[in-house]
Structures are given as C-alpha cells and as structure tokens.
C-alpha cells in the first residue's frame, strides 16, 4: 500500500515547511522503513503551491503513526487550512486488487 498526501502551501510558508516535512519523513523512514518523497507541482497558483508527500510500501498501522508524527511536528499550522488541509489517497499494487 502506498500513501499519497497532497495539500496547498503558501509561497511564503514553503521555506519554513520544507525542512520540517523532510525531517518528519526521515524520522518515519528510520522508524518504519518506508520510502518517502516530497514533491510539488511546478509554479504557483494564486500564491499557493501544491505539495505531495509519498510513502511507499507502508506497513499496517503506518497511517496512525503518520498522523501522530504530523501532529507532533506542527507542520499542519503551515499548511493552508483554507484550502482544505491534507488529503490522503491510498493505492495498492494491481496484484493486491485481484
């Protein structure tokens, strides 16, 4: 199972948020052995960037650990709440769907 989490970030908050998200991902990788990446769409729209955190091959219970880590990190305060906050999509390998 892979998690794709996207959200809006103001251009002004991006410099402060990026190192926090990378630190959060490094800690989750060390603790849970997941592969984590941080991506964003090129450019900005109306002063906002769209970011995406990707967590590959997550173990059972990882979603709860991720929610706790996000809460503890304080990154939610830097994500634009007015645009809906964090959105999680879950995908599984095609073989797992059969």
Which key features would you list for this structure?
36% helix, alpha+beta, 4 strands, 98 residues
Description:
The chain is α+β, with helices and mostly antiparallel strands. The chain is 36% helix and 30% strand. The chain has a domain at 18-46 and 58-80. It is built from three helices and four strands, in the order E-H-E-E-H-E-H. It has a four-stranded antiparallel sheet, covered by helices on one side. The model has no long low-confidence stretch (mean pLDDT 91).
Summarize this structure briefly:
The protein is of the alpha+beta class and 98 residues long. It has a domain at 18-46 and 58-80.
What is the strand and helix layout of this fold?
Elements lengths: L1 E9 L3 H19 L2 E6 L7 E9 L5 H12 L13 E5 L2 H4 L1
Antiparallel strand pairs: 1-3, 1-4, 2-3
Helix pairs in contact: 1-2
Rg computed from alpha carbons, rounded to a whole number of angstroms: 14 Å
- Number of DSSP strands? 4
Oligomer: single chain
Q: Tell me the series of helices and strands, N- to C-terminal.
A: EHEEHEH
Number of helices: 3
Average the pLDDT over all residues and give the rounded result: 91
The helix content is 25-40%
User: In what order do the strands lie side by side in the largest sheet?
Assistant: 2-3-1-4
Distance between the termini: 14 Å
Strand fraction band? 25-35%
Largest sheet: 4 strands, antiparallel
């Amino acid at each position: 199972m892979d998690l794709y989490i996207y959200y809006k970030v103001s251009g002004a908050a991006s410099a402060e948020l990026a190192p926090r998200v990378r630190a959060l991902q490094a800690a989750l990788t060390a603790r849970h052995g997941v592969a984590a990446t941080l991506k964003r769409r090129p450019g900005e729209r109306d002063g906002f960037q769209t970011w995406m955190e990707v967590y590959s091959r997550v173990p059972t219970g990882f979603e709860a650990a991720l929610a706790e880590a996000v809460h503890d990190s304080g990154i939610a305060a830097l994500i634009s709440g007015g645009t809906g906050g964090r959105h999680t999509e879950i995908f599984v390998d095609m073989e797992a769907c059969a």
